[in-house]
């Protein structure tokens, strides 16, 4: 009978151990992802998590029956770890019978000593206690890791759904006014040769992120303004720097222009340039209130950007492939910028900043946002974004430096991003900034029906439609509307004083 029980015991326990060994080895995963270390790491982590989570259920100790002390056994897995598990009834029974038989023969062959029995019982009890503690620790660690994985999945799937449009939901924010109709009237007049911008002001254009690498940024607009006899400047700031740093530089620009010309300044900022300009007026309004006539923000992520937030949000599945590290390399090493420039456009940073700094109520503000087209035809759109200088070859250039247009599919990239935001969040956007996040509280909002992506003001498209207004005309119309908003605010303030 002892031999039969021993055989059963030998045939049952290794079977369970082999099962766990096979599961713990995770065959095939390292070979499948050897060429991609990031995926290999993520796959190994998921396989280990699944293995541990499975053991959480198989390692829970069962309550032994009355008088049964052989319900717990130790199993050595292929990973080298020793864990407790609940044996089946046959193994427990055979183990109990075998141990009783062995104990019986021991008692017959030699008389038991009370002290030895006590020490033996204490040792077994201590061993069982340690085994249960290790089993419980394994359970807790497995559950903790699995819960952490579930939380990462939840944060990744949820993304920025709770943050988009938070400015409209904030009770303390002032409402906006729709100025689209008046803007279209002004734009139509401009296209027919009727220009209304006064030459009693200086116009400062503030470019957005990566403008240092786009030499055509606002150049057509500045040329157009100069032909009309208007003084226009493009702020030469390091656009990849933080919002606080650029705010200080813009403040210095405004003061230099004002003291040099004696004229007040109208600002128009595009994308991050609008955020930087608004920050300058919010932080330094006491020094600038007599020098600034108004602010226009075009396609600016004033409330934050879902693209920046989704890339940099911590605790996501993207942490396994080091997305943040890749962005740091791109911005800091390749572009020679500051990672904080992108961080300042996340919802978390924008909320913190706007709680601390507010745009003054007396400041005239116009905000402008658009929706990118996501039609299949746009995916084939190419855009001229810069000119590269070619080396001089005497037979060809005759001593002059030749230039070659640099063509990139920016329109297609913006359309793809806009479609992604539409599918994931159900939000209309220009490809980078959602329409709701571009509306500045207390401003006059322009919502044109024309489909324009975020990079439209940056590049000159190879497929420009002559029947539509170009970027310089849109900028002129926005500033003309801003002048009217400023005059209206002056009258309102005068009436309140009376």
UniProtKB/TrEMBL annotation:
InterPro entries, alphabetized: AB_hydrolase_fold (IPR029058)
Identification of the protein by name: Alpha/beta-hydrolase superfamily protein
Organism of provenance: Forsythia ovata
């Amino acid at each position: 009978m002892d031999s039969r029980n021993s055989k059963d015991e030998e045939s049952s326990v290794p079977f369970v151990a082999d099962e766990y060994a096979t599961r713990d080895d995770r065959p095939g995963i390292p070979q499948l992802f050897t060429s991609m270390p990031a995926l290999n790491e993520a796959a190994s982590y998921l396989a280990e998590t699944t293995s541990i989570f499975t053991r959480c259920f198989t390692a829970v100790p069962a309550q032994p029956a009355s008088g049964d002390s052989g319900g717990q056994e130790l199993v050595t897995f292929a990973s080298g770890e020793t864990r407790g598990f609940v044996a089946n009834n046959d193994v427990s029974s055979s183990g109990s019978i075998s141990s009783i038989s062995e104990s019986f023969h021991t008692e017959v062959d030699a008389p038991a000593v009370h002290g030895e029995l006590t020490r033996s019982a204490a040792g077994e009890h201590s061993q069982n206690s340690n085994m249960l503690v290790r089993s419980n620790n394994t359970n807790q660690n497995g559950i903790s890791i699995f819960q952490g994985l579930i939380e990462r999945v939840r944060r990744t799937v949820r993304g920025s759904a709770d943050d988009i449009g938070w400015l409209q939901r904030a009770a303390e924010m002032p409402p906006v006014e729709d100025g689209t109709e008046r803007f279209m009237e002004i734009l139509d007049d401009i296209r027919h040769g009727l220009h209304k911008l006064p030459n009693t002001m200086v116009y400062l254009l503030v470019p957005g992120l990566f403008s240092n690498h786009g030499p055509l940024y606002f150049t057509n607009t500045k040329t157009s303004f100069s032909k009309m006899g208007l003084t226009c400047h493009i702020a030469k700031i390091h656009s990849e720097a933080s919002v606080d740093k650029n705010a200080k530089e813009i403040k210095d620009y405004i003061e230099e222009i004002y003291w040099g010309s004696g004229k007040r300044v109208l600002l128009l900022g595009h994308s991050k340039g609008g955020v930087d300009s608004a920050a300058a007026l919010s932080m330094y309004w006491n020094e600038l209130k007599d020098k600034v006539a108004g602010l226009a923000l075009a396609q600016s992520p004033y409330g934050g950007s879902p693209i920046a937030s989704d890339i940099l949000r911590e605790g996501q599945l993207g942490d396994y492939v080091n997305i943040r590290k890749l962005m740091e390399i791109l911005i800091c090493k390749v572009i020679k910028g500051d990672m904080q420039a992108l961080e300042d456009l996340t919802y978390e940073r924008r909320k913190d900043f706007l709680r601390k700094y507010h745009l003054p109520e007396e400041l005239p503000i116009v905000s402008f946002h658009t929706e990118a087209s996501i039609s299949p035809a746009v995916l084939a759109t190419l855009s001229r974004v810069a000119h590269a200088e070619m080396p001089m070859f005497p037979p060809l250039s005759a001593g002059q430096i030749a230039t070659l247009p640099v063509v990139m599919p920016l329109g297609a990239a913006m359309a793809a991003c806009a479609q992604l935001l539409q599918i994931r969040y159900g939000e209309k956007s220009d490809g980078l900034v959602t329409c709701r996040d571009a509306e500045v509280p207390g401003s006059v909002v322009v919502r044109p029906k024309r489909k324009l992506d975020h990079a439209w003001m940056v590049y000159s498209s190879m497929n420009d439609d002559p029947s539509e207004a170009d970027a310089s005309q849109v900028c002129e119309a926005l500033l003309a509307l801003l002048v009217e908003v400023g005059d209206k605010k002056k009258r309102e303030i005068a009436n309140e004083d009376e």
